[in-house]
Design a protein that fits this description.
alpha/beta, Restriction Endonuclease, six-stranded mixed sheet
């Protein structure tokens, strides 16, 4: 089962976020952590076509030309100085997607994804897809609980309009 939660909870998820959820729902049988233990790149590969159909540029491999670089810093004469890589990026909707597997919570990869999205130029929305189940942990619930705390504490303000957490 695909689970999802949009933040802030006081806002309705935008149409593009719902479209991303539908893509993951459409490949659920091939990519869910309830029946599969696919690495993140394999899950992304399952979702690639659907994400491309709704306008995302999607990473296709390991070489530099296959990756999606999103600008972070610009130097002298406007030259790109620093970028971070994203699994998928929709320029018009300013939406980045990161797909994680086993290290999403164990290695706090979801926090790195959050940090990088906050630094990216032209990014207003972030989706992080994590396993529902990883070993004895429900990674989706743990990431959602973290985001609940982040938003409820009101101690840190994020430059993003919204964050979508997807459990696959």
């Amino acid at each position: 089962m695909i689970n999802w939660q949009y933040f802030p909870k006081s806002d309705m998820a935008p149409k593009i976020a719902i479209s991303v959820v539908h893509v993951f729902e459409s490949v659920e049988a091939r990519g869910t952590s309830n029946t599969q233990e696919l690495p993140s790149n394999a899950v992304l590969a399952e979702a690639r076509e659907g994400l491309q159909e709704i306008g995302f540029d999607v990473e296709t491999g390991k070489s530099a030309s296959d990756k999606i670089a999103v600008p972070v810093l610009f130097g002298q004469n406007g030259k790109l100085e620093k970028s971070f890589e994203a699994d998928a990026y929709h320029r018009a909707h300013e939406f980045v997607i990161e797909v994680e597997a086993g290290r999403a919570v164990v290695n706090n990869q979801f926090l790195k994804d959050l940090f990088q999205a906050c630094m990216m130029h032209g990014v207003e929305y972030l989706a992080i897809a994590v396993r529902n189940r990883y070993r004895a942990s429900n990674d989706f619930e743990r990431v959602v609980r973290f985001m609940d705390t982040l938003y409820a504490s009101n101690r840190m303000s994020l430059p993003l309009k919204g964050i979508l957490i997807i459990g696959y």
